[in-house]
């Protein structure tokens, strides 16, 4: 911590560079995800990027379109939490979690890019 305080300007440069690099990677990745699956290997703009083949391999088996919002409790206990996740996935008017999930689905923000 003392080195950060002593080097004052050096820390600011690190923060600015980190922000710049992470913003570029975020923008490129989300632009890559907007391109339909069959067109990705043939898109010349992405093929020139260093990260293209890494992103292509990571996204190879992801289904096209919106991924369903289904939750699952990873542990066999406690049962109460596991039941809440099941209620969330069913989205019925009979349970509190189902009503919350339905309300959130109805009031979801729509982005049109």
TrEMBL record:
It comes from the Eukaryota. Pfam families: PAP2_C. Residues 2-30 form the Sphingomyelin synthase-like domain. InterPro entries: Sphingomyelin_synth-like_dom. This is Sphingomyelin synthase-like domain-containing protein. The lineage of its organism: Eukaryota, Metazoa, Ecdysozoa, Nematoda, Chromadorea.
